[in-house]
Specification:
It contains ten helices and five strands; from the N terminus they run βαβαααααβαβααβα. By secondary structure, it is an alpha/beta fold. The chain has one domain: Rossmann fold, CATH 3.40.50.300. Helix 1 runs parallel beside helix 10, helix 2 packs across helix 6 and helix 8 crosses helix 9. About 7% of the residues have low confidence.
Length: 209
C-alpha cells in the first residue's frame, strides 16, 4: 500500500487538495471520517472529537484530566469507564483508525498527526500545505463569515494549536520542512496546481521506492 499524508495550515485548502489528489490517483480519502470512527470507538459525539482533535488541551483541561485519572484508579473498571477518554486515549484510537485504513488500501490521509505517526515508513509521502497569512485570512473570512481581524486571529490560533499539539505529542516542529517530502504554497499554485504538483511528485517518489 502507498500513503500520502496531508498536513495543512488552517485556511490553506489542504482538505480540498487532499480530495483532489485522492480523486486523481483513484485512492481512498481519510479526512473527516476519522472523526466519526473515533467518536464511535470512544463513545463521544463527533462534535466533541472535532473540538478536541489537533490541539493541545488547556491547563485547566490537563488538570481536570489528571484529577479524573487519579479518581479512576480508585474506582472499579465499570465505574471508571464512565469518565471521558483522556487525550492519550483519543490519540491512541486515532492512530489505530489511521493505521487500519493504511493497511486496507492506498490512501490520502488529512491531518490528525498522520505524518508524525507514519512518517518513518518507506511507503509514506508527506505533504505540507501552506500559504501566506493574508491568504489564509481571506479563506477564513469567506468560510466563517468573519471580519478581517477576527479571521486573522482564528487562523493564527488554530495554527498555533496544531503546532503545540504536534510538539507536545512528538517533540517535533509541525512546520519544519524536514518532516515532509514536499511543501506546497496553495496561494501561489492554486488548488488545482497544488494537486497536480503533489500527484506528479508523489508518483516519482513511489516509482523510485
Amino acid at each position: 500500500m502507498s500513503i500520502i499524508t496531508i498536513s495543512r495550515m488552517y485556511g490553506s485548502g489542504g482538505s480540498t487538495v487532499a480530495a483532489g489528489i485522492a480523486d486523481a490517483m483513484g485512492w481512498s480519502l481519510l479526512d473527516n471520517a476519522v472523526i466519526d470512527e473515533v467518536a464511535a470507538r470512544t463513545g463521544l459525539s463527533a462534535s466533541e472529537v472535532a473540538a478536541r482533535e489537533e490541539r493541545r488541551p488547556s491547563l485547566a483541561e490537563r488538570v481536570a484530566t489528571a484529577m479524573a485519572m487519579s479518581t479512576q484508579e480508585m474506582m472499579s473498571p465499570i465505574a471508571a469507564a464512565q469518565f471521558p477518554p483522556t487525550e492519550q486515549h483519543l490519540l491512541d484510537v486515532t492512530r489505530a483508525v489511521i493505521e487500519e485504513a493504511a493497511a486496507r488500501a492506498s490512501v490520502v490521509i488529512v491531518g490528525r498527526g498522520a505524518q508524525m505517526m507514519l512518517g518513518a515508513r518507506g511507503d509514506v509521502f508527506g505533504v505540507f500545505c501552506y500559504a501566506p497569512l493574508e491568504a489564509l485570512t481571506r479563506i477564513s473570512m469567506r468560510r466563517n463569515g468573519l471580519e478581517h481581524a477576527a479571521a486573522e486571529k482564528r487562523v493564527q490560533q488554530v495554527n498555533q494549536e496544531r503546532t503545540a499539539w504536534v510538539k507536545a505529542n512528538w517533540g517535533r516542529d509541525w512546520r519544519g520542512v524536514e518532516n515532509y517530502h514536499l511543501c506546497v504554497n496553495t496561494d501561489a499554485l492554486g488548488i488545482d496546481g497544488a494537486v497536480d504538483t503533489v500527484v506528479r511528485t508523489a508518483q516519482v517518489f513511489f516509482e523510485r521506492g
